[in-house]
Design a protein that fits this description.
alpha+beta; Gyrase A, domain 2; DNA polymerase, domain 1; two-stranded antiparallel ribbon; 8 helices
Length: 293
């Protein structure tokens, strides 16, 4: 199950649409370019991108020959990063030139071009080429169970995971996110506590464990983390109850830090402005740092 989630459910970014000057369809050839359009589209699918704070963006690429056109030639915004700038897109001969517009979107898993709903499909101009998008940053996952020994015990097993990504996410972080998704999916099968048990115990079980973790576990930048601590926000449960307007009133916490916080929470299935009726739980009521909202 964890392997399936790593391959099919991890969020990421990919190029979904391309518009190349002088090209009307994918079966064209560009004068002065060694590769045909289909090869160029396949090469574009191999570009690894990181996009912060956006769901979609449009990038441009312009270059004159002779020479090699790489992913590093793409003109990106400050909140978009190309992780494999040496990735080859095409080769230009002589004085040839190539200009293209690239649409980058955020998604999960694999998305065929014909499965994406596009309200502008009927009015879409000729020459805008749709790409099958592989959003997942994980390329390959394999595992093996080996025998393990701890002190005198030899009947134990060890799980070894072999994980390959496109460089946009750390392998350990990918496993953590996949495990969180799996935990959330399996939570619906957990038996509810008996009604005869005390109400306090039931309320304690209703609290998502991730809300009880300190905000340090979010691995925010030093600036963002210090701003939250200055506002006495020590637990994730305290943070998610704050609204964007409230956080922007925090000294030294700007829109960039707010975007970082929102993205980190979203990667864990959380958001700002959440309402937690049973917060703080009984286990934290004696902690003076917990905020009562």
């Amino acid at each position: 199950a964890l392997r399936r989630i790593l391959l099919s459910s991890m969020p990421g970014c990919a190029i979904t649409e391309v518009e190349i000057d002088g090209v009307l369809h994918e079966y064209s050839a560009i004068e002065g370019v060694q590769e045909d359009v289909i090869e160029i589209l396949l090469n574009l699918k191999g570009i690894a991108l990181v996009m912060n704070g956006k769901e979609e963006a449009e990038l441009t690429l312009s270059k004159k020959g002779p020479g090699v056109v790489t992913a590093g030639d793409i003109q990106v915004d400050h909140d978009i990063e190309v992780r494999n700038p040496a990735h080859v897109i095409c080769h230009l001969n002589g004085s040839s030139e190539i200009n293209m517009k690239l649409t980058v979107a955020r998604g999960r898993g694999y998305s065929p071009a014909d499965s994406r709903e596009n309200p502008e499909e009927e009015t879409r101009s000729i020459g805008r080429l749709q790409l099958d998008a592989t959003f997942s940053p994980v390329h390959r996952v394999s595992y093996v169970v080996e025998a393990a020994r701890v002190e005198q015990r030899t009947d134990l097993d060890k799980l070894v995971l072999d994980l390959e990504t496109n460089g946009t996410i750390d392998p350990e972080e990918a496993i953590r996110r996949a495990a969180t998704i799996l935990q959330q999916q399996l939570a619906v099968f957990v038996d509810l506590e008996s009604e005869s048990e005390s109400e306090s115990v039931i309320e304690e079980d209703e609290v998502d464990p991730i809300l009880l973790r300190p905000v340090d576990d979010l691995e925010l930048t030093v600036r963002s983390a210090n701003c939250l601590k200055a506002e006495n926000i020590y637990y994730i449960g305290d943070l998610v109850q704050r609204t964007e307007v409230e956080l922007l009133k925090t000294p030294n916490l700007g829109k960039k830090s707010l975007t970082e916080i929102k993205d980190v929470l979203a990667s864990r299935g959380l958001s700002l402005g959440m309402r937690l009726d049973n917060w703080p739980p009984a286990s934290l009521k004696n902690d003076d740092r917990v905020l009562s909202v």
